[in-house]
């Protein structure tokens, strides 16, 4: 509702009695477990588009048509087409998934699809055609901004999945936000910027040394703001903001700001 109100606030009249509104951006509002996907970002989509007699361009045009239309019937028809196309993507890719072999019971349940259904898996691979190239390859986002969950409770099967998927970041007692550092890197393009607000224990606890080294050694940290307590009214976790670029860098100069003792009720930025 708040987003819709903001859209209405930014509408304007381009001529007498002609109201210009922003596009239908509800199609960009997705719901799912963003850490879990059936299909890897590098899975080949060419067969899918060929089999369904469509192209990335047609998919992208359909999404753009949905955003631009003011006709309710056209909007519903386009949305149905997009949903059907995404369902066919899933069906086609899953049918030829090479991982469908004899596995132990727990892993077999994952590969059967039940695990992903229960986990509300999110398919970054084809939810946003804007970040695909003409061949359907996942290129990535220019900017990733996130406030990932801290201390989320996970089922054992999800813990196993995340441990395997994010082994470069996983440690024995890792918090859920730590996985999002790796995930932000994965879904962004090579020249992208990634900015996250996360617990500030990421900055100094040995538990997150693997992740810190990954970011420091392979990317360029632009700025770190240690916010401390009192940022979120419903959370008592001290936080920090970390902004880094995926560009290769030459030096390790980091701009660090410590605001832990500042009055959070004032405008400190």
Assembly state (oligomeric): single chain
The largest sheet, given as strand count, sense and whether it forms a barrel, is: 5 strands, mixed
> Low-confidence parts, pLDDT < 50 over ≥5 residues?
98-106
Residues in helix, %: 25-40%
Distance between the termini: 28 Å
Structural class: alpha/beta
Rg, nearest Å = 21 Å
What is the 3D shape? globular
Counting H and I runs of at least 4 residues, what is the number of helices? Answer: 10
List the helices and strands in order.
Answer: HEEHHHHHHEHHEHEEE
Give me the count of strands.
Answer: 7
Taking all residues together, what is the mean pLDDT?
82
Q: Largest beta sheet: what is the strand line-up?
A: 3-4-6-5-7
Portion in strands: 15-25%
Can you walk me through this structure?
- This protein has 10 helices and 7 strands.
- With 269 residues, the protein is α/β, with parallel strands linked by helices.
- The strands form 2 sheets. It has a 5-stranded mixed beta sheet with strand order 3-4-6-5-7.
- The chain has helices spanning 2-9, 46-51, 56-68, 72-95, 105-112, 114-118, 124-127, 156-165, 176-187, 209-218, and strands spanning 12-15, 18-20, 141-146, 188-199, 220-228, 239-245, 255-258.
- α3 packs antiparallel against α4.
